[in-house]
Amino acid sequence: MIRIIASCLILLFVQCESGKKKDKSPISYSVQLAEAVMQNNPKAWMTDFRSKPRWGYVEGLVCQALVKVSEQNGDPKYYKYVKDTYADVLIDSTGNISGYKKESFKLDDINSGKILFPLYAKTNDERYRGAIQILRDQVTDQPRIEEGGFWHKKVYTNQMWLDGLYMGLPFYAQYATMYGDSLDFNDITSQLLLVKKYLKDGPTGLYYHGWDASKKVYWADSDTGLSENFWGRGVGWLYMALVDVLDYIPKSHGDYSELVLMFQDLTDAIIQFQQEDHGLWWQVMDCPDREGNYQEATASCMFAYGMFKGIQNGLLSDRYLVFAKKAYQGIFKNLVQVDQNGNLEITDCCAGAGLGPADNPVRDGSYEYYIKEKIRSNDGKAIGPLIMTCLLVENNPDWKVEE
């Protein structure tokens, strides 16, 4: 394995024909990462280490990134890969989604619906529109806590998790923009502000992973209902949810400015925990010196994505570029390497983490739990955000981000 050094990266080159003159042009990181995805996973449904096709949120995240690569670079093969080996494998001739069970009410199932908007726009295939509507119908019927927030899943009674905000709300907001009622924006913004009310930690500005409104589940504090720690990827899900939802909330909406402030305040909190020497973040964010903690890739990629997108969209000032660049450079210096096949590989990814359910006391939200979860390379929860981060950097050459 050859570790990529930020100050001395080995870039791949292609020959570009321009009349009779040939120039060498570097292949962008977004394309290199997209190519690695396709070479490592002959079918897009394989991108979350599955042996059988499944409608899953990780597959949807990676596919969303690849669609964006096609849109920005004009190469249809990444779009075709998503369409042919994910969407068309899992969506049948009537628009039903294979293996999907509405009655489970998993917010995770909603995330892959985001790729259906560009597929439908490009093809006018009513199968995609039907699948979009199936997922939107779940949003309508999703169980809620008394104050209106979505349960994360049916099995997680009265619980809101940071993960679920990203899984459900950007799709909900995009649907509301394209097909829905403007009153949906009230529901979307109120859920994010509800999380700010109950899950935000005052001293650090960070957010706890989960909250049980009933304060009954074993991992929840009996007084607050909160889980115990600040899990990096959990905060990353919230950060991406905010910046993506703000693509759709009208600026004239009464809560728009509140969401922008929430995003800005969370950015300020996140950069307080960015490590000075390597620009990354830890698995448990506020415990850098505690035994077993490690610099975790998925959270670091999510924070880089959120910062660069926030700057591009005018939600953050350019003064935040120094932190975004530090993260980008830190990722490529410390977490990205070239594998034995010459593909880019991203290391040190937390494979998965959650809270409960009641019959699984191992997932207790403790520090020890988070650091003992499996660590692997090329997890889609890092690949998707990293590809989208690279696209933002490549679309803004005036940022002068040096690898």
UniProtKB/TrEMBL annotation:
InterPro entries: 6-hairpin_glycosidase_sf (IPR008928), 6hp_glycosidase-like_sf (IPR012341), Glyco_hydro_88 (IPR010905), PolySaccharide_Degr_Enz (IPR052043). Transmembrane segments: none annotated. Keywords: Hydrolase. The lineage of its organism: Bacteria, Pseudomonadati, Bacteroidota, Bacteroidia, Marinilabiliales. Signal peptide: none annotated. It comes from the Bacteria. GO terms for biological process: carbohydrate metabolic process. The keyword Ribonucleoprotein does not apply. It holds the Pfam family Glyco_hydro_88. This is Glycoside hydrolase family 88 protein. GO terms for molecular function: hydrolase activity. It comes from Plebeiibacterium marinum.
